[in-house]
Automatic annotation (TrEMBL):
PANTHER family, per the entry: ZN(2)-C6 FUNGAL-TYPE DOMAIN-CONTAINING PROTEIN (PTHR38111:SF9), ZN(2)-C6 FUNGAL-TYPE DOMAIN-CONTAINING PROTEIN-RELATED (PTHR38111)
Organism (species): Fusarium oxysporum NRRL 32931
Protein name, per record: Transcription factor domain-containing protein
Domain of life, per lineage: Eukaryota
InterPro entries membership: Osmoadaptation_assoc
Length: 336
């Protein structure tokens, strides 16, 4: 907790506290290691809180690329030591709703299924609480990592069954995409005023009423891009499945990916506003990954990205621009 507080202080004040943060970080890891050795396989809320703080510290002050993913994976392992019922009330519920988006994000980036896709983990923690819009959206998105894992496993499928397996993955992605579109329509219909303000042109930035709405939309668009990009890739890889093209035009999917990627990047200036402290920065990982990787697929997308880098995100500080560039290596849609 002390290391995270120092990191936040450094971010807010601009002071260089690297040595103090590092010493506190190492001390915390040693204490946590000893505590885990003693408790073994018993769930402990203090341990989960400590690992959460370490993970957030790695986002704000990374020691190595992707190190925060390891800590989030550790939080997930600790949470699984208990039943989902434990997280339906009190401090356990508050902790769960805070870490759930990061566990889903980690699963997306690592392309591995998550225990949170289990029906009990979707329903039980929210048995006595109404979900926020973002938590509700995660109910739909939580199955995507498992599909990505299945797609990666196609390389190991026998030749006589791989096409059938690919067809099943496309079907699942289509269903999720349809659910996401329906969810988006319902969400926008809840408000009598627009949920966000579109810029006058592609050089401008999007404006939102609050950070929660901005996070919801940028993650919605990221999930949609994941579905559409992988549908495109699978159709290109398996020409025998071209029948899907009757209902899904690959060119139309590509245009949608570019359009949503633009919206994500046009949202960045809002998300990293100073008053949001580190909360905005914590929330940009998946949307940024998807926007950059989606636009880097072809020359049309690259041209759009270059245009945005000299317009919509031009005035973002140098540190964040470096963050944008480094994030390109974090995760990649895998065209085959």
């Amino acid at each position: 907790m002390n290391a995270l507080a120092l990191s936040i202080t450094s971010y807010n004040t601009g002071k260089q506290l690297t040595k103090s943060i590092y010493l506190s970080y190492v001390h915390t890891l040693r204490l946590l290691q000893n505590d885990l050795r003693i408790s073994r396989t018993c769930y402990n809320v203090e341990q989960v809180a400590a690992v959460m703080c370490i993970a957030l510290l790695e986002v704000s002050s990374p020691t190595t690329p992707g190190s925060w993913l390891v800590h989030i994976d550790g939080v997930g392992e600790l949470i699984q030591l208990s039943s989902p019922d434990l997280f339906s009330t009190g401090i356990q519920h508050k902790m769960f709703i805070g870490i759930r988006p990061l566990i889903v994000l980690q699963a997306m980036l690592c392309r591995k299924s998550t225990f949170l896709a289990n029906e009990a983990w979707i329903k039980k923690p929210f048995e006595f609480h109404k979900q926020s819009t973002l938590q509700n959206l995660l109910d739909l998105a939580v199955t995507i990592p498992g599909i990505l894992e299945e797609i990666d496993a196609l390389d190991d499928q026998p030749a006589d069954t791989v096409s059938t397996a690919a067809k099943a993955s496309i079907t699942q992605l289509i269903k999720i995409r349809m659910k996401l579109e329906s969810w988006a329509n319902d969400f926008e219909a809840e408000s009598s005023t627009p949920q966000y303000e579109d810029p006058q042109n592609q050089h401008g930035t999007l404006r939102y009423p609050n950070l929660t709405t901005a996070n919801t939309f940028t993650h919605l668009w990221a999930f949609q891009i994941i579905c559409m990009s992988h549908i495109q890739n699978l159709l290109a890889r398996f020409p025998e499945l071209s029948g899907f093209g009757i209902i899904l035009s690959p060119s139309a999917l590509r245009k949608s990916c570019i359009r949503l990627s633009m919206k994500i990047l046009q949202s960045m200036k809002y998300l990293i506003r100073k008053e949001f402290l580190l909360y905005g920065r914590f929330s940009v990982w998946l949307p940024l990954n998807m926007a950059y990787h989606s636009l880097n697929v072809d020359q049309e997308g690259i041209a759009v990205l270059q245009n945005l880098e000299t317009s919509a995100i031009r005035d973002i500080n140098i540190e964040m621009k470096t963050h944008f560039r480094n994030i390109k290596g974090e995760w990649m849609i895998r065209p085959k």
